UniProtKB/TrEMBL annotation:
GO terms for cellular component: cytosol. Residues 19-168 form the Glutamine amidotransferase domain. InterPro entries: ChyE-like (IPR044992), Class_I_gatase-like (IPR029062), GATASE (IPR017926). Gene3D superfamilies: 3.40.50.880. This is Glutamine amidotransferase. The keyword Transcription does not apply. It comes from Azorhizobium oxalatiphilum. It comes from the Bacteria. Keywords: Glutamine amidotransferase. PANTHER family: GLUTAMINE AMIDOTRANSFERASE YLR126C-RELATED.
Length: 221
């Protein structure tokens, strides 16, 4: 089996989700979104498509690669191919399905359980690191929510996840380093967040295994 992964930022890789997919027999084909000819991608060339996170907004459609990725996402959805979107990837799916994606007015950077879940695999705690949020697309099933913010949805064979199941401590450390200015503006303690991530990632494997199994069952059927 093959998973085609769209990576939208150098520091936002597939991380622990990649380990889960490889353990299930997937070979990963990782593409840099900013240097990918999306129109040339054969939708029959992969068993699963994964779109990762980005510090950009999906509504920045004047950015050429974001517009190209949006058209690609619609093509995957129209073809009813298995699709998993994480954070920016989930927002991209929601937008392609006609839902609103917009800034929240605050940025969330913390580990937290979801308070509404379709099943315990979605409970967490999971890392939230985002300033935008999506509305649940028309006709989609809400899978998880935290403090009124949608954290997961499914429509057809597409699943969008707002939180970050893929992160390991090194990834969070890189994000904290890159985001120092924003962390100061938001009075967010980056060192404390890294320390929390080290603790959480020691125990994340079992719940991520359950979440991955649930998502793949929804996408690949």
């Amino acid at each position: 089996m093959k998973a085609l992964v769209i990576q939208n930022a150098p520091s936002t890789g597939i991380g622990l989700v990649g380990e889960q997919l490889r353990a299930r027999g997937f070979a990963l084909d990782i593409r840099d979104a900013q240097h990918t000819d999306f129109d040339a991608i054969d939708l029959g060339s992969a068993d699963l498509f994964v779109i990762l996170g980005s510090p950009r907004g999906v509504y920045e459609r004047d950015v050429p690669w974001i517009e190209a990725e949006f058209r690609f996402t619609r093509r995957v959805l129209d073809a009813d191919r298995p699709l998993w979107g994480i954070c920016f990837g989930a927002q991209m799916i929601a937008s392609a399905l006609g839902a609103k994606v917009a800034p929240m007015g605050v940025r969330h950077r913390f580990w937290r359980e979801n308070d509404m879940v379709v099943g315990e695999a979605w409970r967490g705690p999971w890392l939230r690191w985002h300033g935008d949020q999506f509305e649940v697309p028309p006709g989609a099933e809400l899978l998880a929510m935290s403090q009124g913010v949608p954290q997961g949805f499914q429509r057809g064979r597409a699943v969008g996840v707002q939180f970050h199941p893929e992160v390991d401590a090194d990834m969070v450390r890189a994000w904290v380093k890159e985001g120092q200015e924003g962390l100061k503006q938001d009075d967010c303690d980056g060192e404390a967040l890294v320390a929390a991530s080290i603790r959480e990632c020691r125990d994340v494997a079992a719940r991520l295994d359950l979440l991955t199994a649930d998502i793949l069952q929804r996408c690949i059927r």
